[in-house]
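hey m, so remember when u said the tokens were messed up on ur end? i reran from scratch. heres the input so u can diff it against urs
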Amino acid sequence: MSLQVFLQAQLLGAEDFLASPPPVEHDDMADLCGRCAWLNLICEVLPRALLSELRLSRMLLGSSSAEQFLVVLTAEDITRATEFLNLAAQAIAALSHGSLRLIWATTEDLGAWPVARKRLDDALSAKAATPISDVTDASALFLPSLPGRDDHDASYFANFAASLPSASKVGWSRDQPAHLTWDEGQYSWPLKEQSRADEDAILFPRRFALDDAEGKPSSLGELASRADGTPRWGVLRGDVDQFHALLRSAASIEDHIHLSALYKEFFAGELALLCTLPDFWRKVTILYRGGDDFAVIGAWDALVTMAREIQRLYEKFTEQTAPSAAGLEGRNISMALSIAPETGASPTAVFRDAGVQLRSAKAAEAGTFYLFGRAIEWKRLRDAEELKANLLRLVRNFGYSPQCINDLASVYREAYSARAARRGKPVPADKPWRTHLRLSRVIPPSRGKDINNLRSAVIASLSGKKTAGVKLRPSARVGVEWARLAAGQ
């Protein structure tokens, strides 16, 4: 009986690949959508193509999602599998102009799964740490004669995005192992929207905010115009904290596969469902769905609401899966929303900024939301929303000038600029009377019990209720910036 071998592959460099500027002559949005769709699918297609080439059962596919896959082979298949992956790695590097690097490792199915998994992780870590110049075939990676490298590569991703909404199958061919195709190819697999569909199909949710004629995806200008308040669009990105630690806690290969599928199906299913709801269906487009992360683009106000809703759903999801998840790994999710400075901004640049902000949020504390220049805990988002609603009531119901919201934002910017200048030194709390004086100048008293009660609530939200050491609350800054955009400032 042949010895079973685990083969695990990873795709490195996804962030640089997605954030790469497109060729000047191509549409930025189409190029980004094409890159996201291709990255979503390549690690779903490659293991299926490998099994098809080796004439092996689909049941040997363990797990697959964006940026990684795991298959079970026999020892006799490893040589051919290595040849297949070498060609795919070279073609992927050529197509991505060196941004992406496919690595893999194998180990025999000997001992418990945690032991085998550690051998795979150690081998992959060693390969990831190896400089590309030290790789045996690295000199061939960018040769124009390699499969997947032709004169049309510059427009490949933009063209790939053109048929994205209507495609029913994704295909792969041996002569171009990095070029995925729609509805054709040597091998092809149907695309499904839900996990309950055909088991041989690839889970690939697609939701687009359509234009007014509902014939094609909306432009960035149309998305921005649908926002309440300031017409802006943005990119929301999210990532599960310590997901790899969660996978490492799996006691068996079955648990590993179950966890991988569970999280992939959660993001695919919830994103697809949310984008059909009235608050989002004309405002949000799905860009990317990984095994533990996602990215969407749309009207800025809808993205704030969607972030909170995904966090709520994820919290419930982890409560239900807690019995199968050890420790606190994977219990938190962090997100970041980057809002375009203007309607005509580059979506690739905004996508890249959202990635930088997401890493900042994860570095600050697990389970935070980077919004309006500040990383806040999810439980503080409700406070920010309440402050936003109260400020808008002052403007819309009680006649305060919208400029007062801008003035409050300026107070915050001045305060934090002063703190930045004193970085590394203790920052003393401002004197209570001085803080209240500055806020009272921006939001002066008025006649009427209701309006003054609301004004007092706003000031308390801004500075807290303590009488000593009063200072501007960091989470309230989010509420002020939120109100400023919602008021159209």
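this time it looks ok to me. The first strand starts at residue 4 and ends at 12. if urs says something different then somethings off w ur setup not the seq
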